[in-house]
Amino acid sequence: MKKCALIGCLVGLVLAWGCAGTRPAPARAAAPTTQPVTVVPQADWSEAVLYFAITDRWADGDLANDANVDRSAKGAFHGGDLAGLRQHLDEIAGLGATAIWITPVVKNIDGFVTGAGFPDWAYHGYWADDFTRLDPRFGSEAELKTLVDECHRRGIKVLLDVVYNHAGYGSHYLKDPKTRAWLRSEDAGTCGQDDLTTCVAGLPDWKTEQPEVAEFLLQAQLGWAAGSGVDGFRLDTVKHVGHPFWDEHRRRTREQLGQGFFLLGEVWGGDAQVLDPWFSTDELDAGFDFGFQGNVLGFVQGRGRAVAFDRYLKSREKVRPGHLLVHFLSSHDVPGALYQLGGDTTLFRLATVLEFTSIGIPVIYYGEEVGRPGGEWPENRSDMPWGDRGILPGEGKPRDEALRADYKRLIAIRRAHPALSRGVHEKLVAEGDLLVFLQKDPSSDDAVVVAVNRGEKPVVARFPAPEGWGSGPVRDEWNGVAVPLTEGAVETTLNGKTAQIMVRAARH
Ligand SMILES: [Ca+2]
Ligand SMILES: [Ca+2]
Description:
The chain has 15 helices and 21 strands. With 508 residues, the protein is an alpha/beta fold. Helix 7 runs parallel beside helix 8 (243-257), helix 10 packs across helix 13 and helix 13 runs parallel beside helix 14. The structure holds calcium ion (2 copies).
């Protein structure tokens, strides 16, 4: 595709908004007077529950910075900003999430592209035009710092999304005599054919193998972290940048930002084995498990045998020790889970039970906890539903509060049971539509049994009580009921399309 077809009217639209970036930052908001909702902070990232928000689509906290906003256009900015995230942080803290991941904040291109058949703007933050400035459509540097401070006040960590691989379409870096030779581009005919030198989706590709280019990008991105106090990065398009860069990146982040600065990488198609080249060299702490969504949604819809799904869950333990898989049911790059399930919240709840009882870091993609429908791209990036709370841009969009209450409960169960976030998986029963498995934490007595009946009919699950349960009592924490344990065995009935999360209850 020729770039002139892909790039829209970049120049004309710059005029409407061109000097906005130079205006003074809005006054810092007054300190809130009410006590914030707090979470029990994660002791380390292995017990994190991560909430991912597209800043532009979450909450508009400052109408004065709205530019290029058209809430009726799916590809336009919708006005969400860092101030909005800060003002409504208790929504995330109240859910029990221990960390948030926010989309890139650097100045993005001003215009739109038309390759998708509609005006598509840089509301997501992945089309940078200036790595040294914060995009005024998201707020100011002071607001970023305030957001991070307010997260920390609630016990919540922050991951900032950063892109090292590419700049935005038509970026000024392509014209600047100082930087134009630093990029491969379709215009110059310099895009390569391999993972490292290709122009991903036609985007100008930084020559990150050149020390001068790497230094420029490292200084810019590490500067954002140092200035704001974020706790780590979510790294975009990792496999399109070479290992020597990531090795240096790790060294520099540890040196300048601290030993614990966390690096979560997006390697498309990642799983325990695919990610190992980045884990074995310790370039990343964690990576996304792209197979989780498909495996879970397939299982709950009755596809494949229960034993095969169980093997998949067991295979996730192959991750290199000291490194973590990050799993999700929905994301900004794939159709949402609820949409894929045809809006069936009963099946969606089964999927959420599996998400929060699987090792690694579960990601809540904003709004899925209140039944945001999602859909194919770009509907998977629709506005956060706020019901009648009067919060833009998702004002009036319905919320499923019962689903949110279930998320809160699942997160609380997970936080109370380390076997769910880092335990060893053992199959107990895989017959027909029934899967029963044990998660046992090797460093404590914690043992949790998860049972899922994906079929329509009730089924009886029988299994030996795990070591450490003794004579009970046993409680199904998901449904809040006692479960009988007789002579070392548990027998419990699961109605159609239901799950149980069983633990040894405290004696009263
Ligand atoms: Ca705004
Ligand atoms: Ca590249």
